[in-house]
Amino acid sequence: MTEKKYIHALLRACGVVGILLLSILPLRGQVEVSARLSRDTIWFGDQLEISLRVVQPPSLRVTLPQYFDTIPRGLEVVEKPLTDTIPRKDGRIEVVRTWRVTSFDTTGVVQAGPFEVSWQADSMTARLETKPLWLVVRLPQVDVNGKPKPIKDPLKIPLTWKEVLLWISGALLLLAAVGLLIWWIHHRRRRKETVQRPRITEPPHVYAMRELETLKEEQLWQQGKVKEYYTRLTDILRTYLEYRYHIKALEQTTPETLRALEESGFSNENLLGLLSRILETADLVKFAKYVPEPDVNGQMWEEAVRFVRETREENQEENKGESVEEDKDV
Q: How far apart are CA 228 and CA 215, in angstroms?
């Protein structure tokens, strides 16, 4: 009885093993494993790629080897391995894991692999491995007893048409940019604002005083229209300066107007300072969003009136006459 029990147990075990083998063998036929080198010869310290290729059913969970620092037998891993999955027409998938490696410690013929993959099937572990790969690592030959060789001249690489066209295009763009800049500067210096000058048939001071009185009656700054008020005020003064001193005040900035006025022979420093204060205050209001106090707005109007009164042609002729009489008396 005891021998029969042993025989039955042995037969059952063989049956189980047979069933497991029968379940694994079909899968082994569906799994393919291979490895290859991107080249079979490198110089010492050079780099190459090792690719592990596994073809498998999509539902099968295959474990691939993990090498992050070194691959056994003397190859160092340079970069983190990359894994890519590609579907195939036969319904299986192709998994490719690639390592970039180099050799700093070993020369001559170096073995890489074999690489083993595994998977589980009915509580059993199945394994497949690739054939080993052979790599030749060469070391440059150095003649330690020889004389030092002269330094080689720099390698001259001929220019291609693409490079020539690139340089020509860059030069043309640079010339165009320089020309545009010169034109802009020239245009800016000689630019003339389009200003519609009022035609004055009366003395300039008569026009200016009438316009200043009109401006006062309109009460622009009292209504919050401060910028419009100063624009009108300076336009009146600049028009007066154009017809009184024959300078292009309507087209000039404040410094240019004051300089042109001095060049025309105007020498009264007090009145020049008064005009400068009016124009600069207006510039701050128009371009810097400056809001003067209410008494300053009225003061600017009064100083404009004073400037016109004290620079009108009648005053200048009277001053000249008084100067002539004083010279005669002397």
A: 10
Domain end position, chosen among 138, 166, 195: 138
Domain-terminating residue out of 103, 138, 173: 138
Alpha carbon distance 263, 256 (integer Å): 10
The distance of Cα 325 from the centroid of its chain, to the nearest Å, equals: 75
Q: Which of 34, 20, 24 is nearest to 60 (CA)?
A: 24
Tokens encoding 284: 């701050």
> Amino acid identity of 309?
R
In our burial notation (b when 16+ CB lie closer than 10 A, e otherwise), range 201-213 reads eeebbebbbebbe
For tokens 């692999």, what's the residue?
A: 113
Cis amide leading into 114 (omega within 30): yes
Nearest residue to 239 via CA among 206, 273, 285: 206
Identify whether 12 is part of a domain.
no
> Can you give the residue range of the structural domain that contains 53?
27-138
Query: Locate tokens 């295009």: which residue?
Result: 169
Distance set, CA 163 to CA 158, 173, 198 (Å): 10, 15, 60
| Angle in degrees, 0-180, between the axes of helices 313-329 and 204-218, rounded to the nearest 10 | 130
d(CA 264, CA 260): 6
Farthest-apart Cα atoms in the chain, separation: 168
**b/e map 269-290, b = 16+ CB within 10 Å:** eebeebbeebbebbeebeeeee
pLDDT surpasses 60 at 6: no
Phi, psi of 295 (to 5 degrees): -65, -25
What's the Rg (C-alpha) of the chain? Answer: 49
Whether residue 161 lies inside any domain: the answer is no
pLDDT one-digit tens code per residue, 270-292: 999 999 999 999 999 999 889 89
Written as six digits, the tokens of 325 are 């009489």
Instruction: Give the pLDDT confidence of 165-219 residue by residue, as tens digits.
Output: 888 999 999 999 998 888 887 666 555 444 456 677 889 999 999 999 999 999 9
Whole-structure pTM over 0.70, yes or no?
A: no
- Whether 34 and 132 map to the same domain: the answer is yes
